[in-house]
Every structure is written in C-alpha cells, then in structure tokens.
Amino acid sequence: MIRIMKRVGNISKYLGQGWLVGFSLLLISYFAYHTFQGDNSLARLQELKAQEIELAYLSHQSSSSRSRLAQRINAMQAFDVDPDMLEEQVREKLGFTHPDEVVFLVQ
Q: What is the pTM of this model?
C-alpha cells in the first residue's frame, strides 16, 4: 500500500509540474499564431508598409499639382498680371490664333 501511495504521490507531483509546461506551450502557441495570422501580424505590417508608400506617392503628386496651380494663380493676380499667362488664357477661352500659327486640337 505504501508503494502505491508513493507512486500516486510521484504521479501527482509530475502532473503538478505538467500543467505548467502545458500552460507554457499553450501561451507560446497563442502568441506564435497571432504573430503570423492576427490583425496585427507580420503580413498586415507588410500591407501597411506598402500602403504607406502608395499614400506617400499620392501625397507627393497632389502637393506638386497644388504648387503648379498656386503658381498659375499667382501669375494671374490682379496687381501683377503675367502677359504670357494672360495670352494663354485668352487664346484658350476665345480661340484666337495668329495667321502664321498651326493649331492642333487634341480632345
């Protein structure tokens, strides 16, 4: 009977340590799964980096377009009209050309 009790004691001692190992493995597997498959995973990080590059490119395009438009607006200010800009606008709106010019209409 004493041998049986010693064996039961050994088994319960190993089970007492086993739950800690099992819990550790479960915790490690949980974090490993979410590292590769979760909402904040490594794959999602790559997608966000690609999106960041695309948005930076769009931002650069829009800022360069905005600066070109600002230059055109500044050229047409009432106190300082650029003659070339004025001529370009008149020709575009009214369709005026010089007799020696060739005009190609692109639509």
A: 0.49
